[in-house]
Amino acid sequence: MQTKHEITSGNIAPILFKMALGMLVGHIALTAFNLTDTYFVSKLGTLELAAMSYTFPVVLMVNHFLFGLGLGTSATIAKAIGQKDFHEARRISTDSLFLIIATGTLFGAAGLLTIRPIFYALGARGETLELVIKYMRICCYGMPISAIAMVIDNAIRATGDTKTPGLIIAFNVSLNAVLDPVFIFGFAGIPAMGIEGAAIATMIARIIGSACTVSFIHFKMRMFDFNGTKPGVTLQSWKKILRLGIPVSLALMLMPISQAIVTRITAFYGDPAVAALGAGGKIDSLALMGIFSLSSVIIPFTGQNLGAGRIDRVSDVLRICEKFSLYWGLFIFATFLVFKTPIAGVFTEDPLVLKYISAYMVINSISFPAVGSCVMCSNVINGLQKPIRTTMLHFMRTIVFLVPAVWFCGKMWQAEGIFIGISSVNILAFFAYHAAAKRTIEESRQNSKKVQ
User: What is the C-alpha to C-alpha distance for residues 336 and 215, in angstroms, rounded to an integer?
Assistant: First the structure.
């Protein structure tokens, strides 16, 4: 088994930022992936674009669940690598492949049986509903294989190699960009398939991406071991992954739920406020890309150092990442303060929407240092294999405190109050997340001493 990326010794900051660059490539590629699909489908017409929009919440929920399984896989494998237990790392890698195929098959079958009632409940009707069904049916058929890369690439990241998964994702995006117009509009004997073509192009790109990921892990890294696979051992591996993955998945799935509730509250203040909230969320995802890229490497880093008993390095990584979050957040706040109007103008020409987007950018970016630190603390806790703790933190933040704060601040200051409520909760959440991360590190330090 090849693990050339040593992260249990050496200078922490260069290791982190080298790994983060690989993750940044992946994040940029995923953003481009979503924009590419939306761009080409928008050329088909309003109904097709609306149908695609209806799929976003459901696809997001499924992706969050799979992403949670991926983080569980990464943390488990990283700990085994840190302990130099390469047999266990191979076993987890192999059994995670079986787990995601089984999970993808289950999701695909469930989706095929429930597409119509789910999207009818979400408000899709008539021709729009039929377009949604055409799109999602193909996604469901491809789910068992297309989901593999979303989870298994975390086995590569667990070794400290973040560049390869990023390059595979970038390849997927490029392939999808080529295939989208071919299957949507037709080319060289391939008939125009409309929105179904968009789904086919996406599935082909993801299936090829899964094949690339599996091939790299098996032939290059030697992380799969199909000899002597036993049901009992596989089930034990699944328990280890799911013990971490399920709580992380639930925590991630809280985000779109709270976003839906906040959007519903915002709707009382008119469509311009809702439009600003939606545009603001897209701006946030781009502005925080550096934060997300760095935070994504924390789980493999923390997992390996936990396995190696180097809890001191985990404490150092939290300090470095929180400092980065502070500087990055202040930089984005200053940028938004100066350039809020031209940035907002990219999304609208409506004066009221422009005003709301500008207000959102300034008010919300005040909390970016805190948001970044919350993300860093969450992944440190997850990497130390205490995912239920982060689930409770996310639940308290996104449901218990955020929803009432948004409602109250909206009553006090109208649409801008919504943004004040979001920012205030993010800032206050930092103290809880930071305290929980420090406590988890100290508990892990004490446990490590007992083992020694």
Answer: 43
Name the one residue in this structure whose structure tokens are 């979303």. 150
Give CA 367 to chain center in angstroms.
20
Dihedral of alpha carbons 364, 366, 369, 370, sign: negative
Answer yes or no: are the C-beta atoms of 216 and 165 closer than 8 Å.
no
pLDDT band at 105 (very low <50, low <70, confident <90, very high): very high
CB 90 within 8 A of CB 223: yes
Q: Per-residue pLDDT for 370 more than 90? A: yes
- Token pair for 382: 């997850």
Is the alpha carbon torsion for 290, 294, 297, 298 positive or negative? negative
- Does position 278 have pLDDT exceeding 70, yes or no? yes
* CA–CA separation, 146 and 383 (whole Å): 26
Q: How many CA atoms lie within 13 A of 171 on its CB side?
A: 16
Helix, strand, coil shares, percent, the chain, to 5: 85, 0, 15
Check residue 3 and give its pLDDT: 52
Q: What is the pLDDT of residue 429?
A: 95
Q: CA torsion, points 297, 300, 306, 309, in degrees to nearest 10?
A: -90
Query: Angle at which helices 231-266 and 368-383 pack, to 10 degrees?
Result: 160
Measure CA 383 to chain center: 16
Rounded (10°) CA dihedral 218, 224, 229, 235:
-130
Residue 94 tokens, joined: 């192999």
83, two tokens: 């302990």
CA 37, CA 200: separation in Å to the nearest integer? 11
pTM of the model: 0.80
Residue 425 binned pLDDT confidence (cut-offs 50, 70, 90): very high
Does position 444 have pLDDT exceeding 80, yes or no? yes
Given a cut of 70, whether residue 222 has pLDDT beyond it is yes
